[in-house]
Amino acid sequence: MIGSVTAFSARQKVTGFVADEISTQMHGGEPVLVMGEQICWRVPVILSLPPSGDRGEVGAIDVDVETGQLLISPSLIQEIENRAEYLAAASS
Known about the structure:
Elements: H1 7-21, E1 26-28, E2 32-34, E3 40-49, E4 53-64, E5 70-71, H2 74-91
Antiparallel strand pairs: 1-3, 2-3, 3-4, 4-5
C-alpha cells in the first residue's frame, strides 16, 4: 500500500471540501495516483446540475497520500469556480 490515504477516502475528502467551500453542485470524481516529488491522489472536481446530472470536470484537487491534506490554494479554488460558471452557462 502506498501511504495511508485510500483513493476512496481522498475522493470523500474532496467531495466534502467542494460541497462545503465552493458549491453543493460539485463532487469528487475517480482519483488517479500521481507519482512525483510528492505522491498524491489527483481527484477531479465534477460539476453536476439537476436534472441532467454530471456536466463535466471543472478542475482537480490533489490529496497527499501520507497526511490526507488537500493541496489547495486560493487561485485553484478561483479557477474551479470560474470553470464551473463557464460550464454551467454553456450547459443552459
